[in-house]
Amino acid sequence: MEQLHYRHVAAARARGAKAQALVGVVASGDLEVLVQRTLPDRECEVEIRTAIAGFADVWQAVVADFVERRSPGGLKLSVNDGGARPDMVALRLAQAVRAVGEPA
Amino acid sequence: MTSALSWYESTARQRLAGLLDASSFGEFIGPEQRETSSHLAVFDLPAQFDDGMIVGHGTLDGTRVWVAAQEGRFMGGAVGEVHGAKLTGLLRAARESSPRPVLILLDTGGVRLQEANAGELAIAEIMRALIDARLAGVPVIGLIGGRAGCYGGGGLIAACCSALAISEQGRIGVSGPEVIETHRGVEEFDSQDRALVWRTMGGKHRRLLGGAELFVDDSLEGFRAAAATLIRQAPALDAATLEAEQARLEQRLERFGGCADARDVWASLGAADARAIPSMDTQEFIALADRLAPSRHDAR
Amino acid sequence: MTLAEILDGLFPAGHEVVLDRGLIFGRGVIIAGGSVTQGRSIIVIGADGRLSLGVDEAVWLSRKVLDIIAAAAQEPILVLIDSDSQRMTKRDELLGLNEFLAHLAKCLLLADARGHATVGLLYGHTAAGAFLATALATRTLLALPGADPEVMDLASMARVTKLSIDVLRQKARSTAVFAPGLDNLVKTGGVTTVLDPGVSLAAQLELALDSIARAAGPSDLRDQWGKERDGRPKAADIARRIQELARAAG
User: Would residue C243 count as lying in a domain?
Assistant: First the structure.
């Protein structure tokens, strides 16, 4: 198992009022993302657990892209990966931000 | 808006959202608690934050219920140490709060082999707690229609429930098709023959045989309505119920024990065209089943 | 020990237990001694010779248990097990084997709830669905050394998990939760006690029945034993926390 951890500065606080949300399932080719609104407004953390080691640079790029596009300030995102491709990862991360953006 | 959504395609959380009254669900030991399995890493397998079992409380048409939902897409919904303990705890709690019903959304291949002993014992504990709850007057309703079906020890948990609802996609069994084929050969059971699998273990056959009380559409709304109905009809559990169940099972063996295939069972029940049954739509099938094999509510 | 030796060891005062097509049934006389068991009889049911448990066997056994529940006497029940797994045939699945096996378990659980203490004694093999329907549906599960219960045989596990048997054997060394065998079923809390065949089996059975009679509090302690024995570290606490959260939810 490989554990990865990325810290970023976000352009803005993620909108919405929900404290927490969960998207996805740890199935083959999929992943789950637990998102918690626990950080200061401009900070973002993404921690990943994956059984497929050796793709840290891909994860890093996907996460960096996600932070730039979605402004997930204040959010900690925890990922359990079931072997998802980068586009699926990007989708789930975006869904997580949208889910926590709903009214409380 | 979500009512027409497929139960089969939905995740466990989506099923709960469709089943329960809006915003009524409260989870016990949610994913943020990160109570994951410690037994998967040694197999290089990823964990899931809720270990594939979601338990909590909510309301269904205003009635307070306990709920447990298996995520069939995580490890095939298989029962591990934490997964199983969540359901055991819920059923023990249900006994104390009788007669509040329990809804179990079953979607499992049985014991999680990577945690074999813990999973098997968990299922034994679940069965015991379920029966204790029923003895205290709690209706326990099983809903079956997911990807993993309801196999292995899950099949025994299902039959311990007060009543079951199943869809076309649902299957109930003890030994899975591949395991039968492995042990007895392809002549005994061709696991690749999907039509055979569904005839033998699938929702329509289980409804006609009496293995499930209600056959429902593959929709969140269909299961919601079925759950509400079964809560009201669930039999109490006592010696009389089990005597009725013994008689029911003995009669089944007498009637169908010599049948080679499900089609023979259905024909024996009085179906004019057994071969047409698999392709019947829900309403047509329900009408046929109610005519040929009316559900009884005094045994299980 | 053979079935005959076990029966003689359990019932030196005599028994009428017979074996018919692999199915065990009869009465044993429990030796007079403690207040609980003076001059009492116990019903014995079970499976011998690695019998596969199919719909026919299960419905026969459940009938026996229901007869005990219906009878006036408060006899305890001893479930003797040397079985295979559930019978794996098209016919058994077609006829709803899950219902038959669950029904047997339900009858044993109801019998126990109605005052007929249920004791299991594993003396050979058992697996999977047969295990759940018999031995694991008793209040107290005893075993003789050499018994080999399992959830699934390693070869089948290898097929389902897609790992080689060697890999599975190697992984089995690190955790009691995974590998087959009596020791691991003890460690994870499934087996209450392993008997000593060098000491009176009758006395050990009486002890087990006595413990049940005196027990107060929750009736299923297997998860707690699993925690105490370090075989199942989390189950008991998770179950207890769920119960507490449910109570708090009102």
Answer: no
Residue C190 inside a domain? The answer is no
CB C222 within 8 Å of CB C191: no
Domains in chain A: boundaries: 2-100
In a domain, C167, yes or no: no
Q: For chain C, which residues score pLDDT lower than 50?
A: 34-36
B140 CB within 8 Å of a chain C CB:
no
Instruction: State the smallest CA–CA distance between residue A79 and chain B in angstroms.
Output: 9
pLDDT tens per residue, range A7-17: 999 999 999 98
What residue spans define the domains of chain B? 12-236
DSSP string, chain A: -EEEEEEEE-SSBPPSS-SEEEEE---TT-EEEEEEE-S-TTEEEEEEEESS-S-HHHHHHHHHHHHHHH--BTEEEEEEESS--HHHHHHHHHHHHHHHTS--
pLDDT in tens, B105-130: 999 999 999 999 999 999 999 999 99
Q: Which residues of chain A fall below pLDDT 50? A: none
The total number of structural domains that make up chain C: 1
Half-sphere exposure of B161 (CA within 13 A, CB side): 31
Number of Cβ within a 10 Å radius of residue C237: 16
Residues in C touching B127 (Cβ below 8 Å): 102, 105, 109, 132, 136-137
* Residue from the list B11, B45, B49 with its beta carbon closest to the beta carbon of A34: B49
Say whether C88 and B175 touch across the interface (CB within 8 A): yes
Which residues partner with A2 through β-bridges? Answer: A50
Interface with B, mutate which of A2, A25, A88 (most B CBs under 10 A): A25
CATH number of B12-236, picked from 3.90.226.10, 3.40.50.20, 3.90.1150.10, 3.40.190.10: 3.90.226.10
Largest CA distance in chain C: 54
Which of C62, C74, C93 has the most B C-beta neighbours within 10 Å, making it the best mutation to test the interface with B?
C93
**Which domain CATH number covers C129?**
3.90.226.10
Residue C39: per-residue pLDDT: 62
Which of B34, B48, B71, B114 to probe the A interface (max A CBs under 10 A)?
A: B48
Residue B279 CB neighbour total at 10 angstroms? 8
Interface contact flag, B46 A81, Cβ < 8 Å: yes
Task: Give the residues of chain B that fall short of pLDDT 70.
Answer: 1-3
By the CB < 8 Å criterion, does C154 face chain B? no
- Tell me the percentage of chain A whose pLDDT exceeds 90: 96
Per-residue pLDDT, A28: 96
Check if B54 contacts A (Cβ < 8 Å): no
Query: Is C177–B81 a contact, with Cβ atoms under 8 angstroms apart?
Result: yes
Binary contact (C90, B188; C-beta < 8 A): yes
| Contact state of B46 with A34 under an 8 Å Cβ cutoff | no
Q: What's the domain range around C85?
A: 3-145+195-215
Residue B47 to chain A, least CA–CA distance (Å):
7
Q: Identify the pLDDT of residue B1.
A: 44
B165: left (phi over 0), alpha (psi -120 to 50) or beta: beta
In a domain, C225, yes or no: no
